């Protein structure tokens, strides 16, 4: 720790297996940022309750599996603090205090709140926890006084709300919290199999722990350029659901060959998918090898989390002393 004065913090909900969107949209950025400064990455298990409160039985197991994916992707517990949100009760205290100064109208205008209520029909999202989870997210972030927050594109509205809450606290009680910047991964477009964004909720993902047999079946049915009905029809890679993955996984030369073959109708969608599957296998193989080692020693993961929990609590205790002092509590 303390590699520089630059500090980052971010978290993920343990609601199921991680997919390619998680890796290219967030995890890849986390791995790079842990080399640049202090990093705090947490399992957002309280956040998982906003949608899974009726059956929380899988949250603990999902938490362990998710951390395995983090470590397999390259997070290093010697360089980052990895911890569970629910193991740090200071997060709940700060969330309560910040909720006192957060207008309800700020929460109701959150675009993700509206979108998920419309898109997810199989879960009850009418609870106060779901409406107020951006306040808890703000507490999670501000607790560690970060310079920046590595997030995906869809989390930008939440981070802006965090910045607004920080400004309001600083205005009311005196400056304490920074207004952290968003740290976006440059190439984070990962459409799902059906053309929507890749999401566990939409059941349209390619997961980091999927076998290649499972992935092959999924990719065969993946949407491509829907205007291209036959191989002899010229395609348009810029509207193809698959081409963004060639940008992420293929070499520049291979991308040019794919683009030319598609637009000139010399490369069919089936062949294009075969190229994707080969490159995806090359990418996933080392991650899955590292994960297999962790599967064989789950206690190692628990030990990493417990050590991270203690380090996070120590940092949070310092912040909460300052918060109480500012608020006169």
Protein topology:
Layout (H helix, E strand, L loop, with lengths): L6 E6 L7 H14 L4 E6 L1 H8 L6 H15 L7 E4 L5 H10 L4 H5 L2 H9 L8 H15 L5 E3 L5 H18 L7 E3 L28 H9 L22 H7 L2 H12 L5 H27 L2 H30 L2
Helix pairs in contact: 2-7, 3-12, 4-7, 4-13, 7-8, 9-12
The CATH architecture of the largest domain is 3-Layer(aba) Sandwich
CATH class designation of the largest domain: Alpha Beta
- Rounded to an integer in angstroms, the radius of gyration calculated over CA atoms is 21 Å
Uncertain residue segments: none
Q: Overall 3D geometry?
A: globular
Classify the fold: give the CATH topology of the largest domain. Answer: Rossmann fold
Number of strands: 5
Described by strand count, sense and barrel closure, the largest sheet is:
3 strands, parallel
Beta-strand content: 5-15%
SSE class: mainly alpha
H-E string: EHEHHEHHHHEHEHHHHH
On the 0 to 100 scale, the average pLDDT is 90
Multimerization status = single chain
């Amino acid at each position: 720790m303390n590699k520089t004065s630059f500090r980052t913090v971010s978290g993920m909900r343990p609601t199921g297996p991680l997919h390619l969107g998680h890796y290219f949209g967030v995890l890849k950025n986390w791995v790079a940022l842990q080399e640049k400064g202090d990093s705090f990455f947490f399992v957002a298990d309280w956040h998982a309750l906003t949608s899974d409160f009726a059956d929380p039985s899988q949250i603990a197991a999902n938490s362990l599996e998710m951390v395995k994916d983090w470590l397999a992707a390259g997070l290093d517990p010697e360089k980052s603090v990895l911890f569970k949100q629910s193991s740090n009760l200071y997060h709940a205290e700060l969330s309560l205090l910040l909720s006192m100064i957060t207008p309800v109208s700020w929460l109701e205008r959150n675009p993700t709140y509206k979108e998920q209520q419309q898109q997810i029909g199989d879960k009850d999202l009418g609870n106060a926890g779901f409406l107020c989870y951006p306040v808890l997210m703000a507490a999670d972030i501000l607790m560690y006084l970060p310079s920046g927050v590595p997030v995906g594109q869809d989390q930008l509205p939440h981070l802006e709300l965090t910045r607004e809450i920080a400004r309001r606290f600083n205005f009311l009680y005196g400056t304490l919290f920074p207004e952290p910047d968003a740290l976006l991964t440059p190439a984070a477009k990962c459409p799902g199999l059906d053309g929507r964004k890749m999401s566990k909720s939409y059941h349209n993902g390619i997961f980091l722990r999927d076998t290649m047999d499972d992935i092959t079946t999924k990719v065969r049915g993946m949407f491509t350029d829907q205007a291209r009905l036959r191989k002899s029809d010229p395609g348009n890679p810029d509207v193809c659901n698959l081409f963004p993955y060639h940008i992420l996984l293929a070499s520049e030369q291979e991308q040019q060959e794919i683009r030319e073959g598609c637009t000139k109708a010399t490369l069919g969608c089936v062949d294009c998918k075969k190229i994707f599957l080969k490159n995806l296998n090359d990418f996933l193989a080392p991650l899955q090898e590292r994960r297999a080692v962790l599967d064989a020693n789950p206690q190692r993961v628990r030990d990493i989390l417990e050590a991270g929990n203690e380090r996070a609590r120590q940092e949070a205790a310092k912040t909460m002393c300052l918060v109480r002092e500012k608020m006169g509590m």
